[in-house]
Amino acid sequence: GNIFMKTRHKLLSLFTLITTSFIGTCAINTFIKVRAHSKHLMHSDTSLYYKWRLGKIHYTKTGQGSPLLLLHDLCPASSGCEWERILSSLSKKFTVYVPDLIGFGQSEKPDITYTNPLFMQLISDFIQSEIGRRTHVVATGETACAVITACKNNPDLFANLVFISPKSPEEEMKIPGKRAKSYKFILQLPMLGNLLYNIAYSKKNIDREVEENFYHPYAVPVLLKDIYYESAHRGDFPRSVHSSIICNYTKFNIKPALACIDHSIALIAGENDSDGVSAIASMVQINPSIESAILPKCKRLPQLELPRELLQLLNIYL
What we know:
Blueprint: H1 2-37, E1 48-52, E2 55-62, E3 66-71, H2 84-90, E4 94-99, H3 116-131, E5 135-140, H4 143-153, E6 158-164, H5 169-172, H6 180-188, H7 190-200, H8 203-212, H9 222-232, H10 238-246, H11 255-260, E7 265-270, H12 274-286, E8 291-295, H13 302-305, H14 307-317
Parallel strand pairs: 3-4, 3-5, 5-6, 6-7, 7-8
Antiparallel strand pairs: 1-2, 2-4
Helix pairs in contact: 1-7, 1-9, 2-14, 3-4, 6-10, 8-9
């Protein structure tokens, strides 16, 4: 009888602990999501939506002239908002399309594995469906990889290409390691995965990451940090794109495509972005016809840090 009572007491204690942990974790996850959305900073009266096969794609369209597509980087906190400081000027010369890629910003975030071919197909489909003619493209970071492969497969869709702070071809050749599937599985678990994602993209961590992308980190507007925070926590499954990125599912060998593309390609990086500078050297070695420029006193986001200087370069390359 005593053994039975002790066992029942232990089981009750364990059940209570699990239940309390479950409720506490759910409460934390809900609080973070509500806090991130509380300011509604990403709302736009000019929002449009492209109904793609895997989810609705949010985008804006402004200006008149030749079509220009602006694509943000592959970071879970990224969105089309990164182009706000140069959008007005570009709209005087181009019809500018600024989408949030699937899994980012205000677009849908389905629970899928995000890969380079997926983004490649989305970019091509978006140009065909929403733009309908040859398009100039400016892309940042790892998104350049998807544009390069899309251009290789559908060259008639693309005009001039400009890549800002690109990743090196060597970096893009990484593949999911032995532990990637296990780690991705853990991140996909509804409660634990959400908690791990919320820790990785807490307000403090996002603020620090944004500041690290600027040459003058203490000059970063608070509003910009809040937008990144909101973007990282919008949608149903933001952890899915996060798990795909950190497990290298979004990477792809771009060397063959980069070597044979005969479109006009220009590369831009900040001189204080060592990865971007080395990536330019590597990409020019693969395709010597590529043009490049280095912006002084700048890191990974010249469209936000040095918009005037970046616009001068875009006017040349586009």
